[in-house]
Amino acid sequence: MTDDTPERLARLQATIEDLLSEAKRQGASAAEAVVSGSAGLEVSVRLGEVETVEHTRDNGLGLTVYFGNRKGSASTSDLSPAAVREAVRAACAIASHTQADPCAGLADPSRLATEVLDLDLYHPWDLAVEEAIGLAVACEDAARGADPRITNSEGASLSSHFGLQVYGNSHGFIGGYPSTRHGLSCAVIGQEGESMQRDYWWTSARAAADLEDPAAVGRRAAERTVARLGARQIPTRQAPVLFRAEVATGLLRSLTGAINGTSLYRRASFLLDHLGQRIFPEFVRIYEEPHLPRGLASAPFDGDGVATAAKAFVADGVLQSYVLDTYSGCRLGLPTTGNAGGVRNLHIAMGPLDLAGLLREMGTGLLVTELMGSGVNPVTGDYSRGAAGFWVEGGEIAFPVEEITIAGNLKAMYQGLVAVGNDCDFPGSTRTGSWLINEMTIAGH
Fold this sequence. Notes:
Blueprint: H1 5-25, E1 30-46, E2 49-67, E3 70-76, H2 81-95, H3 129-144, E4 150-169, E5 174-192, E6 195-205, H4 214-227, E7 237-243, H5 245-258, H6 261-265, E8 286-288, E9 311-315, E10 318-319, H7 326-332, E11 346-348, H8 355-362, E12 365-372, E13 382-393, E14 396-409, H9 410-415, E15 417-420, E16 435-443
Parallel strand pairs: 7-12
Antiparallel strand pairs: 1-2, 1-4, 2-3, 4-5, 5-6, 7-16, 8-9, 8-11, 9-10, 12-13, 13-14, 14-16, 15-16
């Protein structure tokens, strides 16, 4: 990354100022825009050979103008003054043809961020292509050499990205900040007799120093792959299900999707009208921390310029807050929750048990380590996913399983949450331990 980041940020802010002035000149009563620039390096290797080396550099601008309650939007990747003026003209022309919407407009000025907090998100990595290739090769070599049953590889990939983003609106708010994100992943194939399996591992962080060691990533990918060899089906039954931590994140994302304002005002959510109701057992607390230093989803303000703040979505098992931006909040007659653009650094309070403790707590049941398909109905909460993992007996892993389906309903699954582990050992902005659900239908042979 270059040392001209402050100058680049100033240029993007100037672009926003020019755009807002042009929108006002063309008669708009209000306007907002976001402009961004990014650059990155990605390399991938397979079987020790380089497959791809890709440098990226992108710009983007999106704007919305308002004529009263009529709005028009346009976007462009050309940030030249002429292109910006043309984008404003296009947005104004669109607004002249749209219906008035009483909820169309900017956020309340009193809710806008008054300062751009430094959340320690910017850690450029002066990474040469040769060094990036060497790290990816080391990762894959560690995976391939970890066990003789690792017979093939899907490769290892390393990425390093830098971004600048600026948002501004005609209330006088303009804010922006730089950020970085780096990552390394590896996927390998194992074979034992007729059984073949694939698995992977990854690491991601704002700062390269926070990445997991490449060899450790490779070994973890190999260990996960080898553990699945010899997988079999099991008979159809009802049993407890333990979602390992990295797949339990999907259950949290289903929750935030169900309490998202857009789903709610469209009346397309299984948690419609559940605010203030108990949807989990009393021990459950689910919250976001948007100001977490170096957090992968941290942000000082949301996509409407509204200041972000820590909040609980669920406390004592009770739904405390929806996930609202300015528009969806208006449609529901509620204030924004500062979540334009989504939830930032979602967490669930973890309990005292590690994975081994959760297995003992479950006794006999299914440990799910992979989910396939997208069989979640957001309107009814019906849940049916292809799965793989391990059958557990007497609190110990007995054998790997595959080609099964697990089914239930999310409302019942949330109510049937027995425990959340403390075994969160993976990267990501959604942080959870493993979830033990009291009972689900497991369809096998």
